[in-house]
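step=predict obj=Halobacterial output domain-containing protein n=107
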Amino acid sequence: MAGSNLALSAECTPVRELHPELEKTPPSVAIVEAIAKLEDVDPTSLPPIYESVDSTALDQLIGKDRAEAGSTLVVCFDYQGWNVFVRGDGSIVIGDPAGVGESAPLF
């Protein structure tokens, strides 16, 4: 679906948006590092992300074919109480479910 725009909305407050260089940092690593920074803890102190999502599949799926998947593929899951949204092009939004407000576009 080349050229389509997906407007994803969620009832949480987006607190962090990431655009990792997927060749250097897999999405699963970028997510753990970002949440560790939000919580002001060492990334190794967090539980393994694979307890929330199949991190191997996530890393293989996201960014694999950005031109085709870019704005249509979205993976959503909860990690450490944070709402995580990952788009096929590698864009990541982390939302705070405690900051529930009006539904707003994430991508």
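step=describe
Residues 11-100 form one domain.
step=end
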